[in-house]
Amino acid sequence: MLGLKYLVTITLRENAEQYLDFFHRYNVNSVLSVYCNGTATDKTLSYFGLERTEKIMFKYVVSDSAVPDIVRGQLHEMNIGASGNGITVVVPLDGLGGTAALNHFTGSMSVNKEVCSMAAQGSDYKYALIITIVNRGNSDLVMDAAREKGARGGTIVKAMGTGAEIAKFFGVSIPDEKELVYIVTTKADRDGIMKSIMEKAGVNTDAHGIVFALPVESVIGLQSLVDIE
User: Fold this and answer.
1) How many whole angstroms separate alpha carbon 73 and alpha carbon 64?
2) Mean pLDDT, to the nearest integer, of 61-68?
3) H/E/C letters for each residue in 127-150?
4) What are phi and psi of 114, to 5 degrees?
5) What is the SS3 string spanning 57-125?
6) b/e map of 48-69 (b: 16 or more CB within 10 Å)?
7) CA–CA separation, 136 vs 112, rounded Å?
8) Which helix (H) or strand (E) segment is 158 a member of?
9) Which has more pLDDT, 118 or 99?
10) Which helix (H) or strand (E) holds 199?
């Protein structure tokens, strides 16, 4: 793999400010946040006289070497292991859209750029999840570029950027409105789709797109994927 990890942290919305401070202390260069809710049914909530739990999801990329410290910090400083206080998932990155994407995610972190510039070879997975972070309003541009290289469809999620260094890099305001475009494709089509997105909606365009990919071992319903507007 690339020596980078994609982390997703889900916690109570009331912890948002503390987590932003935490990410700053641990030199996490770029974080995307999405508001979400707990999954308890309305019937259960009504029975116990409770309200639906408001949560926040943070998504960020760091180097392999940074993961142990971040995980320990979340356990000991943020008490993420406590009941109902959140969870963090760590997934290896499989592809990265050039040096600009690497700098976007890692900033001042120490990373082997030679390793990160290569896509994973010889892995036994069959599919890939391509994720593009783009300025809001440019998801159609991303999908048009992806379809030119065989993508069947995608899913769009609205998010807010929280990386001050990225705002300085791109010259945009904080908080910056973003869209995440998720595309599931075959491993064989991955590189062509990523390259097309980088050319049509990459960092040198008004879309300022950042592209990376995650390995997917299996997919259910791949042929029925449709666009979600």
Assistant:
1) 15
2) 87
3) EEEEEEEEECCCHHHHHHHHHCCC
4) -65, -40
5) EEEEEEEHHHHHHHHHHHHHCCCCCCCCCCEEEEEECCEECHHHHHHHHHCCCCCCHHHHCCCCCCCCC
6) eeeeeeebbbbbbbbbbebeee
7) 31
8) strand 155-161
9) 99
10) helix 187-201
The answer to whether the CB of 8 falls within 8 A of the CB of 93 is no
- Of all residues in the chain, the percent with pLDDT exceeding 70 is 66
pLDDT at 189 (0 to 100): 92
Q: Binning pLDDT at 50, 70 and 90, where does residue 173 land?
A: very low
**Residue in the structure block whose two tokens are 């075959």:** 186
> CA-to-CA distance for 144 and 190, rounded, in angstroms?
15
Peptide linkage before 215 cis (omega within 30 of 0): no
Query: What is the rounded average pLDDT for all residues in the chain?
Result: 75
- Cβ neighbourhood burial of 157 (10 Å; 0-12, 13-18, 19+): middle
DSSP state of 228: B
Q: Helix 139-147 crosses helix 187-201 at what angle (to 10 degrees)?
A: 130
